[in-house]
Structures are given as structure tokens and as C-alpha cells.
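agent> Task received from the user: take the single chain below, predict its 3D structure, and emit C-alpha cells. No templates, no multimer pairing.
agent> Plan: (1) validate residues, (2) run structure prediction, (3) serialize to C-alpha cells, (4) report one or two observations.
agent> Step 1 OK, no nonstandard residues flagged.
tool_call: predict_structure(input=
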Amino acid sequence: MRVAEAPAWLLDGQRADTPDGQQQAPDSQQPRVRLLPAYDTYLLGHRSRELIVPATRARAVHPGGGIIHAVLAVDGRAAGTWRSRRRGRRGLEISVRPFDDPAVLSQRSGSTQGAPVRAAIHREAADVARLVGRQPHELILESADSPHELIVESVAAP
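)
tool_result: status=success, residues=158
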């Protein structure tokens, strides 16, 4: 298969045959969302990272000096960056900076377009908190253009 005019590969289990013989991703209506940590192996070791990180956003993920930021991945491609911060004795706050307008992912926007992605981000944030032994506290969606524009939502434990 080709992605952005470049060859790409999928594992056999990531594809399903359709009756007309065309290949289609299983459950293609639900986005696959992951909060990848900084220096995750998925972001390393590629001759060209453009299959994962759009060239226009490469500096947000790879600012230089060997630094690789934590990434919000949607359907295998970088869709933003994220960071975490302890809140109180047991809480964890997760800030996500989508590359596109975070209002699309917000419950307050009235748009259902980003609802599945937003719900998946909430599940991932709760899972990250569980993995580091903390309670999920808040999910903050930041604007990529203005870091002072924030959408704060509570994260429920799974």
C-alpha cells in the first residue's frame, strides 16, 4: 500500500478483505489513538519519518538535539504532542496539544467529528495514569497556535 505517495506496510492482522476484493482496515470508523511516550521506539529508527510525522509538524516532535517529544498518534500518524504533570499526592494531569484545532475534540464544540478521538484520548489518559500509579485528574487540550487557549476536561478512571 502507499501512504502520502510513499510505500507503507501493515501486518496481516491490521487488514481485512471486503467482499469486492478490496482491502480495508477493520473497524475503520473507530480511530486508533495512542499517547506515545517521549523517545518511543515507534518514533525512532526510520529512514524517513514522514510516514508517521507530517513534514510540516516535524519540529514539534523532533525539535533537534536528539530530543523526541511524547506524541498523540491517531491511526498511526502523529496528530499532536502531549505531556504529563503530577497534581497533588496521587493525581496526574495530561496536556495534549493537537496539531489541528482542539475545539474539534472538545465536548463544548457541538461537533461530533472529533468525539471518537476525544473519547479515545480520555481512555489513553486514564491508562497512562494507571500505568504510572496515579489517579487521572484532568485532560487539557491546548491550542497549537496559542498555548493560552485551553480546554480542561475531567478524566474518569476506567
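agent> Step 4: summary for the user.
Residues 31-154 form one domain.
agent> Done.
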